[in-house]
């Protein structure tokens, strides 16, 4: 059904389909599991667990163990090497995705196939249908800050690339974007360019050339939008010159990009004057997106989880334009669509699509996880509102009861399918002894301390942290890049506030008895976090999927090195 909609997007049909799927989510889950096991039950991996042809949820969860990426790695490696393309799936895997790698320090390989591509399109279309009902867009273009990294061949001849690259390079992606009236305003040569700095410059240029057609400004993760407009602040005069003269800046050196851009660039002094005037009228870049792209209806991208720290800056650039948070998924597969576009990014939820995988949820309530034993996972329709869970995914691409590593909270139900709020990655970020602080705890601490800077009209551009065990006792170190140059006493106050804002009982009690040393705030030079981004891109990560690592592990030498050589000031907390 969805395939027929590619030519003309029929929002009501898409909504009808999701309403029907979500009304009987339990039955759809059982059918989906049956389909996955029918197709893949004969594989080496599933054979190993003695399902013997059974496809019901009880047999499945009793026989097949919960797995993390490291459990599946030997199988995936054999697929990558071309030794056994069917060890996880009935149909051979021919494409591999590299996950962003910013959470673990190095990219992981995961299988990718047509079913994942289809579910990606189903998610895009579903959320678009609901979004378009609230915020209709006309025929136009999208200024999309998307970047595709290189695809390469593995030893076994499989195509490998980041998940977003595999999606952008698939013909279905373009068709779907066209059907949703939001083709990207940049030519393919820009999206697929080998140097993302050059691609970003050209995305901005294309956006300006098509400024009246731009209906939506988007990226996969919000970080790319903020990064793009921070760059715009630096290069805007050069962009205006290019438009005025109809020539492309010499900073663009890739011949294919130059050739593609030359087809779009003609001398246009009138447009250059308009842009110049608009920018001159801005105060501290507030509302730049609205000013430059007057037909824009909203800004779209993943704004939840580790993207929340960029919201403030994004609101600043967006002016009055609404920020709409995009769907929830991973390189390993999609989970849910945002079908309530009116919710703010801070409250956004994702309704699980019950036909794209079989989902289980490990309850995280402490009393259920006693004596080091984890609680038993529950099915999709058995989750409880208000509770937090770790999510397990079984999908059509060879993952069975796979720990995605994310913590979600059930906020409600859409018909009978749960609406999830993303909470954080499950692995602990900061821990020295009995203290436990997650990505979310760090984010909240940084938010409160950053309030103190706001009075001076300064902001935290980006941040990360590490545990320093070279001192006795060990202590937390938080790295900040900030927009200006505040007085020492203000930063000392920020440092104390950070220390006090980790309200975890284990941390506070350890601090009081000095079992954890004073928190250290280190201020790094402007541009340090761009260097970190460049480092990950150099390793093959996709800019489109980039998430600043919020905690740098002791073995991540290069990032630690980038941070340490760029420290310009540091403060030790006197809060305890
Ligand atoms: P990747 O490794 O690049 O495939 O990133 C996947 C991870 O990004 C997920 O496991 C989540 O931790 C995070 N993520 C994806 N979508 C969202 C979302 N809508 N909100 C918050 N975090 C998300």
TrEMBL record:
Residue stretches making up the GH3 middle domain: 351-425
GO molecular function: ligase activity
A Pfam family per the record: GH3_C
Keywords annotated in UniProt: Ligase
Domain annotation GH3 C-terminal: ranges: 440-552
Family, similarity comment: Belongs to the IAA-amido conjugating enzyme family.
Name under which the protein is recorded: Jasmonoyl--L-amino acid synthetase jar6
Source species of the chain: Salvia divinorum
Gene field: JAR6
């Amino acid at each position: 059904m969805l395939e027929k909609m590619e030519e003309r997007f029929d929002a009501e049909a898409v909504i009808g389909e999701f309403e029907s799927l979500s009304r009987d989510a339990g039955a759809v889950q059982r059918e989906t599991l049956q389909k996955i096991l029918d197709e893949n039950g004969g594989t080496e991996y599933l054979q190993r667990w003695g399902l013997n042809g059974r496809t019901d949820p009880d047999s499945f969860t009793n026989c097949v163990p919960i797995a993390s990426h490291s459990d599946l790695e030997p199988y995936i490696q054999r697929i990558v090497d071309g030794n056994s393309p069917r060890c996880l799936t009935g149909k051979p895997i021919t494409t591999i995705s590299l996950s962003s790698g910013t959470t673990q320090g190095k990219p992981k390989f995961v299988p990718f196939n047509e079913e994942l591509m289809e579910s990606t399109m189903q998610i895009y279309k579903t959320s678009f249908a609901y979004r378009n009902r609230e915020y209709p867009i006309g025929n136009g273009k999208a200024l999309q800050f998307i970047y595709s990294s290189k695809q390469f061949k593995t030893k076994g001849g499989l195509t490998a690339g980041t998940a977003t690259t595999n999606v952008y390079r698939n013909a279905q992606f373009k068709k779907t974007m066209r059907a949703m009236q939001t083709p990207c305003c940049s030519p393919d040569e820009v999206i697929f360019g080998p140097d993302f700095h050059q691609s970003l410059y050209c995305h901005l240029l294309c956006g300006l050339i098509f400024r009246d057609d731009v209906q939506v400004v988007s990226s996969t993760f919000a970080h790319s939008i903020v990064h793009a407009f921070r760059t715009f602040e630096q290069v805007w005069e050069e962009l205006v010159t290019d438009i005025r003269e109809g020539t492309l800046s010499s900073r663009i050196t890739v011949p294919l990009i130059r050739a593609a851009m030359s087809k779009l660039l003609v001398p246009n002094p009138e447009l250059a004057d308009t842009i110049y005037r608009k920018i001159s009228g801005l105060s501290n870049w507030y509302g730049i997106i609205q000013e430059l792209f007057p037909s824009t209806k909203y800004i779209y991208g993943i704004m939840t989880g580790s993207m929340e720290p960029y919201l403030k800056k994004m609101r600043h650039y967006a002016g009055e334009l609404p920020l709409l948070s995009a769907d929830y998924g991973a390189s390993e597969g999609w989970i849910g669509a945002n079908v309530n576009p009116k919710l703010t990014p801070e409250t956004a939820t994702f309704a699980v699509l019950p036909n794209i995988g079989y989902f289980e949820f490990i309850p995280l309530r402490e009393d259920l996880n006693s004596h080091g034993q984890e609680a038993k996972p529950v099915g999709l329709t058995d989750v409880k509102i208000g509770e937090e869970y770790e999510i397990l995914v079984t999908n059509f691409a060879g993952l069975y009861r796979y720990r995605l590593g994310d913590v979600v909270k059930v906020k409600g139900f859409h018909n009978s399918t749960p609406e999830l709020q993303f909470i954080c990655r499950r692995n602990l970020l900061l821990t020295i002894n009995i203290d436990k602080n997650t990505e979310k705890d760090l984010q909240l601490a940084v938010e409160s301390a950053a309030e103190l800077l706001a009075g001076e009209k300064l902001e935290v551009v980006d941040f990360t942290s590490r545990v320093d065990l070279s001192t006795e006792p060990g202590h937390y170190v938080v790295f900040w890049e900030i927009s200006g140059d505040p007085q020492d006493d203000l930063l000392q106050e920020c440092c104390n506030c950070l220390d006090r804002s980790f309200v975890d009982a284990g941390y506070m009690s350890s601090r009081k008895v000095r079992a954890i040393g004073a928190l250290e705030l280190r201020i790094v030079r402007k541009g340090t976090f761009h260097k970190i981004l460049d480092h990950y891109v150099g390793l093959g990560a996709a800019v489109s999927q980039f998430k600043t690592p919020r905690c740098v592990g002791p073995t991540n030498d290069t990032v630690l090195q980038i941070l340490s050589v760029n420290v310009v000031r540091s403060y030790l907390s006197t809060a305890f």
